[in-house]
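WARN no homologs supplied; continuing
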Amino acid sequence: MKILLHTCCAPCAIKCIESLRSENFTPDIFWYNPNIHPFKEYESRRDTLTAYVKELGLQLISKDGYGLRDFITAVQNNFEQRCGICYEMRLKAAAEYAAQNGYESFTTTLLISPYQKHELLHETGERLGESCGVKFLYRDFRPLFREGQTAAREKGMYMQKYCGCIFSEEERYV
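OK structure emitted
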């Protein structure tokens, strides 16, 4: 079954991909993360994911271009709701791409992180899937998080220290 997997980074993708494959899904990997700051962080995450996807022989679709200005513009009047705005931006791009390119469904690696707002992600994915005419495949990947992080370390993958946005980078030091 053809599914589009929005992917935030390679370490989060490892167990999501394995789980989806165990259900007979063949995930195509979708990279769109305009929130990631600074640019070198964006590059490190993108390049690590690109190498991993190539290693697995999967297809990578990149809605490329460093989108920080778009993200900052979107959240500038509502910093406290930035996570929801960020989820909206990324999952909308994934849902639109999936609908326009014949995917049966889409999902996101963000669902593996115990640090994300899980219920908000679920609601956002369902709503956007419905509005774009493509199914959002909900999975609670969180029980696989630690195992995925361990596997990423064993593979020598770049491991980020924060969610990705400038605000989460600030919060890791404050």
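The radius of gyration is 15 Å.
OK
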